[in-house]
């Protein structure tokens, strides 16, 4: 069964001025329900992640300052959000959604969090609208509970997963891969196990060729028993923050490549949706829905 973490807080608890692009969190499951691809049984609402699980990944001081709303003005500016209790509540729900999706992926091969992909949050910082790193926390949860031994993180958001890279820089159990637009946020990059920085304007043919060459090498080197996939659609040509030029079909083929590699090897994969900032929200929703459609075709 395809299981998808979704909670109204994903969009409702965002500050004014940030809600429009994040309406996708409601529209994606709505579209999938309309198509009949899923039913209400496929959706689940996560609880809050426990503090001890957060502390497997983030520093105690950073977490407590975030929880208690005592981050410095400079730290708050770095997150891009005005800090509030509701925003922290939203974040801890997203993180638990990714953990829950991991457990469903172990059972069913693949599972999703409609939100997540908060890959700019590092060990002791938030950045770029990311307060806690959902996939990093979930990876450490799997490793610490013995549910995984070797983790591969495939980050295909248009922005480098700098927080994820920094968190796992010294951890041989997690292989971090980020393929992103080189001249784009974050302007100070961290070092992933493998970074591929693409030139501005790269389109379907070059992008998919590079990915096709890279994926087999990743699986050979990392030998993962669990995969995290960050499937941002800010790689689209229509995206106002992306600087790459993929079509919707190219983006769909990207997802197919990742899922086929996981499925052929019998490796469960958790998918967090990541970014998407096209001016027309229909472009964002359709591209994200394609990710679910491909997963449904391959797995169910």
Automatic annotation (TrEMBL):
<dbReference type="InterPro" id="IPR000286">
    <property type="entry name" value="HDACs"/>
</dbReference>
<dbReference type="InterPro" id="IPR037138">
    <property type="entry name" value="His_deacetylse_dom_sf"/>
</dbReference>
<dbReference type="GO" id="GO:0040029">
    <property type="term" value="P:epigenetic regulation of gene expression"/>
</dbReference>
<dbReference type="InterPro" id="IPR044150">
    <property type="entry name" value="HDAC_classIV"/>
</dbReference>
<protein>
    <submittedName>
        <fullName>Histone deacetylase</fullName>
    </submittedName>
</protein>
<dbReference type="Pfam" id="PF00850">
    <property type="entry name" value="Hist_deacetyl"/>
</dbReference>
<keyword id="KW-0378">Hydrolase</keyword>
<dbReference type="InterPro" id="IPR023696">
    <property type="entry name" value="Ureohydrolase_dom_sf"/>
</dbReference>
<dbReference type="GO" id="GO:0016787">
    <property type="term" value="F:hydrolase activity"/>
</dbReference>
<dbReference type="InterPro" id="IPR023801">
    <property type="entry name" value="His_deacetylse_dom"/>
</dbReference>
<comment type="similarity">
    <text>Belongs to the histone deacetylase family.</text>
</comment>
<dbReference type="GO" id="GO:0004407">
    <property type="term" value="F:histone deacetylase activity"/>
</dbReference>
<feature type="domain" description="Histone deacetylase">
    <location>
        <begin position="24"/>
        <end position="290"/>
    </location>
</feature>
